[in-house]
């Protein structure tokens, strides 16, 4: 986790909030550093994490996690982390017919209707352990990323349904959190992606949006981060609070600063 | 061998080693400490793979793309287990050349090749590979060409345009011996037949394989993609590239080259209509990437993205690939006559570079890159280099230029001063040269303590001569 981002979001691993849906969004840049942040944050906060990693392999997250201070192999062995590696399982699902329903079943089917097997997997993974031993703090579902599900043949409505089911189970029933990454395609007319993004933006409590700079590539400022706090269930009598920072990604951390106040310029 | 030497120093300095996977899967993405048990034999096994080297930044195993200039732009090479997507230029001239360089590099390094095409028979593709350049016969020609435009360039220190001097020069190194990482190829000659026959390759020609039946239930992938995936998976399993076959212990890299993916010849209609089968290609790329991540292979795909009707698919394809490079050739476009792009054949855009095992990635600072294919060499350069070279053609070094500076007598100025100050007076920079330049240097007529600073030949011999240039009175 990045300590500067914790300060900006006003949280620490000890007093992490519960029952929240956080939406990570990136436009014209790579927002995967936010996924690494939240993964290490919730592992340090002693939460049980179910990570649906559809884009990269386990060792990628593990190596970056070690730079941020968590070990994914240890967490997986002691049961804190349930890791679904999309790339590796897709090969198994695609080439060999599985006996029992696999969470990525839709890869084999021509017209997959919904993501129910994936939801069953998440529900099973985050089931509360009821044999009395030291339980984890709260369940967390982390998805990287949801736009890939659109590329694999699911409709935007099916993905929104999946998130809705997960919210009902994880956020409301078990008082946990959900963090999901969606790519913003910008001006390319990807309508399904826009439907998904708008639908999730209306449901989420916190939106972190990483954008590339409007002026193009810069060596010292890698992008701009917009943080938006929302209260989706209550009527909007109070304004949603929004902050904008610019950031630079370094080897083991990310430094944030106000717009135009990059240390390279001052 | 030089490759082994760099592997050794790389491992020693970073302290991490690209080692084989522990149980079943051999993947280059795992990294172990130097004290891991039983890793010595597997470490030496991977280090000794010809044609690979570990990345300086994260220890990732890299292979060369066949173009050392492109390797430099991609941060050292193509990482094993990843996909390099080349967006084809309009007439598929330079992208097929890059494809051939990739395969030729595999033959030189002794890698196993898998060539898939729906247009040409892979055997024919292999016959047309360029020949590698060896040291002796090429070095003379390369030095001749290089010294044509390296005369005084690197020696002149720029005074006004000094920021350009700080940017790194593109590597113009000559050919190297065959044991090093990247090789140079001669596009005008063919690869010797004995090298092709000595290499191990598998071909997938879609028109031949399309008739056999499928043994997988129909999903939204087109027929051609399913057959290609099964073929690739078969080769990977049979030859042991993923380490799961107990009989085969593979010590080599599989280079997969897929040509014109997404074109109608593969049975896909995304280039024909806008509402075609929009998930077929993206699903294919996803499963392909899953196969690559769990095996010792690297893949280059060329795709005619300029033909894809639905632009959303292009952004999805970019997100599903690791490295994306776009080629834009100048043939037939208005840029052919643009003086800025004189001598170049096209632009090369590095659209995406992956961040593997890391938060950061190697990105080059130079963004406007152009390529040219000379007789024997495919070079990539920064576009502004050409512009500066043209400026020097108007004001060649070795002549002196007079320039009036503010509140001072006439004096000699440097090349950059004259260009900068005079070009805004003239309608075109060519006219400025006529204003400023005079052919002979001034003669010393005095004692030599003060430099001759008067106007050219104005007061020679005590008599006023006629003034040059603009001050001539009309007859």
Question: Would you mind describing this structure in some detail?
Answer:
The complex is a heterodimer of chains A (266) and B (475). Chain A is an alpha/beta fold and 266 residues long. Chain A is built from nine helices and nine strands. Chain A has a nine-stranded mixed beta sheet with strand order 3-2-4-5-1-6-7-8-9, sandwiched between helices. In chain A, strand 8 and strand 9 form a beta hairpin. In chain A, helix 2 crosses helix 3, helix 6 runs parallel beside helix 8 and helix 8 runs parallel beside helix 9. The longest helix of chain A is centred in the middle third of the chain and has 18 residues. Chain B has 475 residues and is α/β, with parallel strands linked by helices. Chain B is 31% helix and 17% strand. In chain B, the strands form five sheets. A nine-stranded mixed beta sheet of chain B has the order 10-7-11-12-6-13-14-15-16, with helices on both faces. Chain B has a three-stranded antiparallel beta sheet with strand order 3-4-5. The N and C termini of chain B lie far apart (78 Å). Chains A and B meet through helix 2, helix 3, helix 5, helix 7 and helix 9 of A and helix 10, helix 11 and helix 12 of B.
């Amino acid at each position: 986790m990045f300590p500067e981002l914790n300060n900006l979001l006003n949280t620490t691993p000890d007093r992490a909030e519960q029952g929240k849906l956080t939406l990570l969004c990136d436009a014209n840049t790579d927002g995967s550093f936010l996924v690494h942040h939240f993964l290490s944050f919730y592992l340090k906060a002693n939460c049980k994490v179910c990570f649906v990693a559809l884009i990269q392999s386990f060792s990628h997250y593990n190596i970056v996690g070690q730079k941020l201070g968590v070990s994914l192999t240890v967490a997986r062995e002691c049961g804190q982390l349930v890791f679904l590696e999309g790339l590796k399982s897709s090969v198994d699902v695609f080439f060999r017919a599985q006996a029992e329903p696999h969470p990525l079943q839709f890869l084999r089917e021509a017209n997959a209707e919904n993501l129910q097997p994936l939801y069953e997997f998440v529900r099973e993974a985050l089931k509360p352990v009821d044999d009395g031993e030291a339980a984890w703090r709260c369940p967390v579902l982390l998805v990287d990323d949801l736009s890939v599900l659109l590329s694999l043949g699911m409709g935007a409505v099916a993905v929104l349904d999946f998130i809705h089911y997960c919210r009902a189970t994880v956020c409301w029933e078990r008082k946990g959190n959900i963090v999901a990454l969606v790519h913003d395609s910008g001006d390319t007319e990807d309508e399904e992606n826009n439907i998904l993004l708008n639908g999730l933006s209306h449901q989420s409590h916190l939106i972190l949006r990483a954008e590339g700079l409007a002026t193009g590539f810069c060596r010292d400022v890698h992008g701009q981060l917009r943080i938006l706090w929302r209260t989706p269930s209550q009527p909007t009598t109070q304004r949603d609070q929004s902050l904008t920072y610019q950031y630079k990604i370094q080897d083991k951390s990310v430094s944030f600063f106000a717009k135009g106040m990059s240390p390279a310029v001052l | 061998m030089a490759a082994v030497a760099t592997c050794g120093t790389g491992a020693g300095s970073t302290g991490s080693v690209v080692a084989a996977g522990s149980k079943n899967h051999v993947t280059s993405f795992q990294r172990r400490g130097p004290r891991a048990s039983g890793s010595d034999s597997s470490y030496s096994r991977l280090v000794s793979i010809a044609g690979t080297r570990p990345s300086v930044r994260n220890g990732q195993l890299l292979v060369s793309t066949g173009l050392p200039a492109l390797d430099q732009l991609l941060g050292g090479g193509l990482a094993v287990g990843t996909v390099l997507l080349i967006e084809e230029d309009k007439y598929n001239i330079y992208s097929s050349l890059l494809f051939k360089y990739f395969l030729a590099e595999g033959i030189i390094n002794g890698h196993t090749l898998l060539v898939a095409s729906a247009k040409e028979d892979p055997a024919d593709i292999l016959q047309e590979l360029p020949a590698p350049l060896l040291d002796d016969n090429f070095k003379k020609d390369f030095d001749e060409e290089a010294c044509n435009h390296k005369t005084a360039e690197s020696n002149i220190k720029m005074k006004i345009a000094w920021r350009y001097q700080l940017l790194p020069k593109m590597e113009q190194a000559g050919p190297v011996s065959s044991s090093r990482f990247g090789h140079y190829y001669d596009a005008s000659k063919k690869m010797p037949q004995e090298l092709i026959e000595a290499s191990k390759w598998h071909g997938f020609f879609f028109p031949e394989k399309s008739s056999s039946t499928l043994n997988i239930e129909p999903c939204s992938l087109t027929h051609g993609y399913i057959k290609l995936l099964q073929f690739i998976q078969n080769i990977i399993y049979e030859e042991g590239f993923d380490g799961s076959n107990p009989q085969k212990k593979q010590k080599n890299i599989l280079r997969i080259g897929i040509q014109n993916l997404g074109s109608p010849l593969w049975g896909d209609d995304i280039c024909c209509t806008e509402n075609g089968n929009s998930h077929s290609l993206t699903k294919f790329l996803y499963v392909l990437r899953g196969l690559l991540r769990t095996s010792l292979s690297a893949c280059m795909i060329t795709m005619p993205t300029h033909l894809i009707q639905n632009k959303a698919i292009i952004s999805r394809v970019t997100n599903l690939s690791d490295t994306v490079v776009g080629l834009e050739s100048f043939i037939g476009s208005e840029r052919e006559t643009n003086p800025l792009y004189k001598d170049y054949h096209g632009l090369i855009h590095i659209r995406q570079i992956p961040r593997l095992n890391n938060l950061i990635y190697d990105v080059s600072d130079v963004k406007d890159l152009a390529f040219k294919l000379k007789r024997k060499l495919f070079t990539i350069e920064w576009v502004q280099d050409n512009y500066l070279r043209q400026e020097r053609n108007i004001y060649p070094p070795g002549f002196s230029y007079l320039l009036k500076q503010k509140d001072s007598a006439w004096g000699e100025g440097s090349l950059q001063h004259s260009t900068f100050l005079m070009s805004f007076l003239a309608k075109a920079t060519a006219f400025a040269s006529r204003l400023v330049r005079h052919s002979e240097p001034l003669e010393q007529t005095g004692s030599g303590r003060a430099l001759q600073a008067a106007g050219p030949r104005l007061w020679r011999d005590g008599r006023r001569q006629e003034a040059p240039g603009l001050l001539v009175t009309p007859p």
